[in-house]
Amino acid sequence: MESIVFGIGITALTGALATVAGAAEDTESNIGSQGDPNSQVQLAPQMGYLHRIFNKAVAGEPPAYGLWCALGAGLAWAFMAMQINAVLAIVLGCVLAVFVQGVYATTAYVGRTASLKKFGQPVYVDILKSMTTVTMAHAFVAIFCTVTLCYLMNAALGHPFPLPLLGLLWGIALGAAGSAVGNPYYGKERQYQNQKFGAGVPIAQSGNIVRYAEAGERNSLDNGFFTAKLGGPASGVCFGLIVFLELWRTVIFERISAGWGAIIVGILIILIFTVIDRYIEVWARKTYGPYAAPVKEASS
Amino acid sequence: MTVKIEVVAGGIPHTKIMVAGLLASLVCLYLSYLNVVTKTEMFSFFGGLAVVAALLWGSHTIKVLCSYGIGTGVPSAGMIAFGSGVMGMLLATKFGIAAPIVALVLAAIIGLIIGYLSNDVLNMKIPTMVKSLTELAIVGAFTLMGFAVLMTGSFTFANLMSGSVTFLGQVMPSFQVSFIGGSLIATAFMLGAIAIQHPFNACLGPGWTQDRMLILTAECGFLSMIVAAFMSFALITSGSALISLIVALVGWGYTYSEYMKLGKRDAAAWLDSKPIPDVEEH
Predict the structure, then answer these.
(1) If you write DSSP's letter for every residue of B247-282 in order, what string do you get?
(2) Is the N end or the C end of chain A the one with fewer CB atoms within 10 Å?
(3) Which residues pair with B173 in a beta bridge?
(4) Residues A150 and A266 placed together within one structural domain of the fold
(5) Which of A64, A74, A77 sits opposite B194 (nearest CB)?
(6) Contact list, B78 vs chain A (CB under 8 Å)
(7) Number of structural domains chain A divides into
(8) How many beta carbons lie within 10 A of that of residue A186, not counting itself?
(9) Which of B206, B227, B270 sits opposite A125 (nearest CB)?
(10) Distance (Å, rounded) from C-alpha A121 to C-alpha B210?
(11) What is the pLDDT of residue A182?
């Protein structure tokens, strides 16, 4: 009984860490225009819309975060093998992983922008300096929380996988959660804020992303500010739920019929979520429906 | 058949890069055998140099392959390179001193099979697919073997599976503290997989230039070597790890500054806190 209570406590803690990680990850990737919204940032100068948006295309979010978290976890593992205190080891590992992330971000921005010479897109040094540091700060929060939850799984819950492998797996899961949940908010909502709501994006408007603010020009920090309100927390809830439910079912039901209990509960959770998703989809279709021409008022 | 949208115009031909990369990484892997000859771990940094050489070749192969519309993003090419390479590399480590040569042969066979499956069974019909996937599998195997040498000082299976842990002043063998047992191979996998695809992914576009992409590849290789050298402190002697770290830092500093210079050369403009320039249409 005591071990179950302990396990539930760790589960709650990892869920909370995962929520913070998800929110930070989505904000980081939006400031860097990573993931699928990147295609429009890349396309914009080719359509004549020069911009001051950060274009940090390292890879899709899942592989990129797979690397950052595996790296943070691998370095933390190595420092712990050198008899360094676990907290210090995780912090040091994450600092080095963030250094790598920052270097990749700068080379990606300079490389992508330099290759757009034909269209006159300049490299902005101030963007490079201010955006990279902000993404590094967010990435540190995301990587630190993820590596810490991996360490808790390994050390407190006795997960059989070594730390770097857990870092790789949960890093990919983190990137996937941020990419699936947070990106639509940035890519479909923010980038096309200047279009009619619900009209979709016609081909002619491709690349015509939001570049100007109420006064002056926007940069990616404004995008981070915008998406941190809903997109970031939604990604956080998604990743937090994934981690929490995954550990919860294992901790509570693992003892039932030699582990099969946890597997059956896992399948049940998937079924419940499938029903909820279907219900929301049908409700959204009925309520908002396909785009229709506004009904004309009957004239007398 | 898909249409090729870009060609390698000018610059060093691909075959030359391939031969140079293959030979350089093989030679570097074998130079690390000096560790066994001299009974030290000082020559582990040759593993890192093998990584850089293999990545230079691999990133250019990705450029050749991804010039065709392959229907996926560039990062997927890095993943398949290491997914196929890791099998050849792990099996090859069983063969002692012949390991690099065996890795070359095994990875080539695995790459050929994957290339055949994707081109003829899945009907992707891309002319350079089989050749490129074969090359990428070898690059993946060499890079992972390079990382293994850098972190453990050896490319033999026994040394990758066992480390030592100091407990109460006693040195005890441990499976947990080793390249494979501690899953450092997972970190090495991702380090290589991102480093191999990043240069082309970051430099693609109408203004692509070969020298800028290749110097970026070297930068990514040395950057990965820095963090791998940090991890090697856990598995080899501090002095040897320090040598790797210094070599990596020097290489990275040089290539990074060179890359920024080339970026400045190729960019349309290099502005600091300036507004968006006026263009005619908008």
Answers:
(1) HHHHHHHHHHHHHHHHHHHHSS-EESS-PPPP-S--
(2) C
(3) B164
(4) no
(5) A64
(6) 59, 63
(7) 2
(8) 26
(9) B270
(10) 20
(11) 87
Domain that holds residue A134: 2-253
Residue A240 lies in a domain: yes
Residue-wise pLDDT for B123-145, tens only, equals 888 888 899 999 999 999 999 99
For residues A174 and A131, state if they share a domain: yes
For residue A205, which residues of chain B lie inside 8 Å, CB to CB? none
**B73 and A113: CB-CB below 8 Å?**
no
CB pair distance less than 8 Å for B190 and A168: yes
Q: In Å, what is the CA distance from A8 to each residue of A52, A155, A252, A273? A: 46, 15, 8, 22
Residues A252, A266: Cα–Cα separation, whole Å = 12
* Predicted local confidence at residue B156, as pLDDT: 86
Residue whose entry in the numeric block shows the structure tokens 């978290």 = A69
Amino acid type, A169: L
Task: Judge whether A260 lies within some domain.
Answer: yes
| A180 touches A190 (CB < 8 A) | no
| A242 shares its domain with A261 | no
Handedness of CA A15, A17, A20, A25 (dihedral sign): negative
Check whether residue A173 and residue A280 sit in a common domain. Answer: no
Contact list in A for residue B79 (CB cut-off 8 A) is 63
* In a shared domain, residues A185 and A243: yes
Between chains, do B203 and A59 touch, taking CB under 8 Å as contact?
no
Query: What's residue A198's pLDDT?
Result: 65
Establish if A293 belongs to a structural domain: no
B204·A168 Cβ contact <8 A: no
Q: Which stretches of chain A score pLDDT less than 50?
A: none
pLDDT at B91 over 60: yes
Q: Which residues of B touch A64 (CB under 8 A)?
A: 194
CB B130 within 8 A of CB B119: yes
Pick from A61, A94, A101, A117 the residue to mutate for testing the B interface (most B CBs within 10 Å). A117
Q: Tell me the nearest-neighbour CA distance from A99 into chain B, angstroms.
A: 10
Are A214 and A266 part of one and the same domain?
Answer: no
CB contact under 8 A, B194 and A67: yes
Domain co-membership, A212 together with A277: no
Considering the domain architecture, whether residues A166 and A264 belong to the same structural domain is answered as no
Cα nearest neighbour of A108 on chain B: B202
- Residue B281 has its nearest CB partner, among A48, A75, A162, at A48
CA B185 to chain A, closest CA, distance in angstroms equals: 9
CA distance B144 to chain A (A): 15
Cross-chain residue pair B181–A211, CB shorter than 8 Å: no
Residue A271 lies in a domain: yes
The confidence score (pLDDT) of residue B1 equals 39
Mean pLDDT of the B236-252 span: 94
